[in-house]
């Protein structure tokens, strides 16, 4: 029989379950953001070019939920998660510029860019530089890069860029010469020998082959088109300077392309802020990010270009990896509000939240051939955790001292991510990169989704640019990102973060927890767990007290009568 005592016990048990469930839910919501914010769409059976065009046109927003939906639409593209699918860089899938020029489309003018006569706008080809046929090392770095076509703003055979070897990166000398990071910079004739005209400087980073001359030339081709259309863009000749560090390594040194006092790095370690290997220095090597600091400082101290307003650091492919990691670790300067970063189709990313392999978006990659790197997926340059001794010495101490400030400063920066919707190339083939995704587009979208799901949502100063009908093509990615690279905030100089003699505020302007994520701050996590523990203790205590407060609702006489009545009925 269902007695009063049993009823109370059942009610208390149900109350315990409900309370524990509610408290656990509150605690869990404070511990992490759900990885499935909106339902995934079903995979379509084939690539839909029109759908890709629609995706590319829908990223002009900073609304977190809208961007999450766009990113998930990309992640639902058929075969994006298949490491064995063939390339999408074909005319069949609508690629705008076909690779028929022997340079991956990078010697072909962007479609639709025409001159006043309706003919394709002139395209200045990249200089030919001799290489070692075995190692690929550069044998001789050109001292100047010329205009070699007619129809530009500048006449044929005029220097467009000259090499500058005056940037000393350390007080130490080598063999009586300053140790320098060589770089290309727009020839003074391109700003009419009047540095006061310059309003914007773009520092472009090379790709894996370290062919810096190619990247300044590509960026300059876009600039020439802008200069030819001043009525449309309101940017006039002489107002933009393009620079680029000449990145060299030990292969170039062996091939004869490195002077004794020039910095050279180990293989591709420069893209992660790695240290120089030559020249040998008594006071320690110089990091690539430290050399970039020197370049940016030389621009923004306004002694060289008195009226410069913005500097943009841009990198595609391996240069995109360098741009992303430099933006993450760069030391804060007073002029930081006027530094922008463009990150195009990087092969891998530095993950912003430490995790185990089961929490990475591409858990259990199928293309590892038995390799196990689960202990290192958070180790630099793939993350900020794991073996933290691997973090470049440029930023290691600041990350270890306060990682929250490092992340908050990165989220505050002006950053654009540009991803080609046909770029399903493998990119970084290391095991750690596979946990971020199988290809450029997959990894970039996973990173963008994780960024949007961090506390604080999508950063207000970041933008995402999905580019339709373009694969892993440097020039086309630059051209479709023209607004961010050349035009946005062109005549704007934001206030300094602090004065020349005022100690900087180490706290980034954007709070780590705000808006819809305010309840995920650590204080609320602690409160949620306290509520859970108090509720469990209260329920257990109530059950114990009830054992003594409530007696059976039947006495001995009642039991004797029920027993007698039951026997009588059986007879």
Describe the protein in words:
The protein folds into 2 domains: 49-487, 3-Layer(aba) Sandwich (Rossmann fold); 522-560. The two termini are 23 Å apart. It is built from 16 helices and 13 strands. Residues 19-45 and 505-522 have low confidence and may be disordered. It has a 9-stranded mixed beta sheet, with helices on both faces. Helices cover 33% and strands 12% of the residues. The chain has 571 residues and is an alpha/beta fold. 40% of the residues are buried. InterPro entries: AB_hydrolase_fold. It comes from Malassezia sympodialis (strain ATCC 42132) (Atopic eczema-associated yeast). Residues 1-22 form the signal peptide. Keywords: Membrane, Signal, Transmembrane, Transmembrane helix. It catalyses: a monoacylglycerol + H2O = glycerol + a fatty acid + H(+); a diacylglycerol + H2O = a monoacylglycerol + a fatty acid + H(+).
């Amino acid at each position: 029989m269902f007695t009063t005592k049993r009823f109370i016990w059942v009610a208390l048990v149900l109350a315990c379950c409900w309370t524990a469930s509610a408290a656990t839910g509150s605690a869990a919501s404070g511990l992490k953001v759900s990885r499935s914010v909106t339902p995934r769409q079903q995979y379509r059976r084939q690539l839909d070019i029109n759908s890709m065009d629609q995706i590319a046109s829908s990223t002009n927003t900073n609304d977190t939920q809208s961007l999450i939906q766009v990113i998930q639409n990309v992640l639902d593209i058929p075969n994006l998660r298949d490491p064995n699918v063939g390339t999408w860089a074909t005319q069949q899938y609508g690629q705008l510029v076909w690779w028929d020029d022997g340079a991956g489309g990078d010697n072909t003018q962007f479609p639709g860019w025409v001159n006043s006569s309706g003919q394709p706008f002139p395209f200045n080809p990249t200089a030919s530089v001799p290489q070692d046929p075995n190692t690929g090392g550069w044998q001789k770095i050109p001292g100047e890069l010329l205009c070699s076509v007619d129809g530009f703003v500048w006449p044929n055979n005029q220097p467009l860029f000259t090499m500058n070897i005056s940037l000393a990166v350390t007080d130490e000398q080598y063999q009586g010469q300053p140790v320098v990071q060589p770089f290309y910079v727009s020839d003074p004739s391109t700003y009419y020998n009047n540095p006061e005209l310059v309003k914007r400087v773009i520092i472009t980073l090379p790709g894996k082959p370290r062919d810096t001359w190619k990247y300044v030339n590509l960026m300059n081709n876009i600039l020439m088109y802008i200069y030819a259309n001043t009525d449309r863009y309101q940017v006039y000749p002489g107002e933009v300077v393009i620079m680029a560090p000449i990145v060299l390594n030990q292969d170039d040194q062996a091939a004869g392309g490195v002077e004794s006092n020039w910095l050279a790095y180990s293989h591709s370690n420069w893209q992660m802020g790695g240290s120089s290997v030559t020249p040998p220095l008594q006071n320690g090597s110089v990091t690539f990010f430290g050399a970039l600091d020197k370049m940016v400082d030389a621009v923004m101290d306004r002694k060289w270009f008195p009226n410069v307003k913005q500097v943009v650091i841009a990198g595609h492919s391996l240069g995109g990896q360098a741009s992303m990691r430099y933006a993450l670790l760069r030391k804060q300067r007073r002029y930081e509000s006027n530094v922008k970063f463009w990150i195009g189709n990087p092969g891998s990313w530095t993950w912003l939240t430490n995790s185990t392999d089961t929490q990475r978006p591409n858990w259990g990659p199928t293309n590892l051939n038995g390799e196990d790197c689960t202990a290192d997926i958070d180790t630099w340059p793939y993350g900020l955790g794991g073996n933290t001794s691997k973090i470049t010495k440029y930023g290691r101490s600041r990350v270890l001292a306060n990682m929250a400030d490092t992340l908050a400063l990165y989220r505050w920066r002006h950053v654009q991510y540009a991803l080609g919707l046909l770029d399903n190339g493998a990119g970084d083939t290391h095991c750690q990169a596979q946990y971020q995704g199988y290809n450029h587009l997959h990894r970039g979208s996973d990173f963008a989704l994780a960024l949007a799901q961090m506390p604080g949502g999508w950063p207000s100063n970041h933008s995402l640019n999905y580019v339709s009908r373009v694969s892993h093509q440097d020039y086309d990615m630059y051209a479709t990102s023209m607004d961010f690279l050349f035009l946005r905030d062109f005549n704007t100089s934001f206030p300094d973060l602090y004065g020349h003699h005022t100690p900087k505020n180490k706290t980034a302007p954007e709070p780590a927890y705000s808006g819809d994520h305010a309840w995920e701050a650590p204080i609320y996590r602690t409160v949620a767990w306290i509520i859970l523990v108090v509720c469990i203790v209260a329920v257990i205590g109530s059950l114990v007290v009830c054992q003594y407060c409530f007696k059976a609702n039947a006495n001995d006489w009642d039991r004797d009568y029920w027993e007698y009545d039951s026997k009588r009925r059986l007879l």
